[in-house]
């Protein structure tokens, strides 16, 4: 079978995205195919993680495989060793690489030089497994994609990029409210618009949170300052001061709207204290569904 890398949501077709999400939702109780029996997968992380590491390690184990975690201190990609050298060496040892990197270019180089599949576990450009896991949660709660309104409140970051692309592929209307200088970049928007035309969905870039959240079925937020942006913390807190998801903002959404956040959350910043634990929140369902989606993805990748 030809090697297949998953660096972006767009490495799947729209039909594959829907199929993957529905399979993940149906796979929770097992039994799970032993697609990784006799195989070893390396987790190559430049950034620390709770959900990403746990969900991938468990998924690999449940598929009968063995996992080797390489911590940020051990990696040294492009510093202690060149990215091509790391890719070549790991390809001699393992059957797959799951990489969590600062730069998307590092992922692209790993995929270019590795002879085994490379899966994006987060980069500065995309977080495809998060977005696909989010679609799994939305499908479970809403039973459909077409015609739903998802309001993203906050930074047009890697999570927003992947979520926009995924929503556009399956027909979810995507509305993002963010300060103009922190909105979705044109290169991502151009790709998403092509998918939106095919799925007959809409994309709206707004600055006023209430306008985005009005009649929303899903209200989504993420941290204002991601790892690697710590020096911008004060500047970002000022820019996003009016972009907190709280009771007042949620009053504009539909009564049965759900609240989503990829975690970790900064309670009292992008999300008001207590929101994460309210009845509208499906945030911990999201965290669980990372496992089910990634297990399904790996099973498809290695079948």
Write a concise synopsis of the structure shown.
The chain has about 300 residues and is α/β, with parallel strands linked by helices. It is built from twelve helices and nine strands. It folds into two domains: about 10-125 and about 285-300, Rossmann fold (3-Layer(aba) Sandwich); about 130-285, Rossmann fold (3-Layer(aba) Sandwich).
Give the tags.
12 helices, Rossmann fold, alpha/beta
What would your notes on this structure say?
This protein is α/β, with parallel strands linked by helices and 303 residues long. It has 2 domains: 9-126 and 287-301, Aspartate/ornithine carbamoyltransferase (Rossmann fold), CATH 3.40.50.1370; 130-284, 3-Layer(aba) Sandwich (Rossmann fold), CATH 3.40.50. Helix content is 42%, strand content 13%. The protein contains 12 helices and 9 strands. The strands form 2 sheets. It has a 5-stranded parallel sheet. A 4-stranded parallel sheet has the order 2-1-3-4, with helices on both faces. Helix 1 (14-26) crosses helix 6 and helix 1 crosses helix 12 (283-301). The longest helix is centred in the C-terminal third of the chain and has 19 residues, at 283-301. It is globular. 48% of the residues are buried. The mean pLDDT is 95.
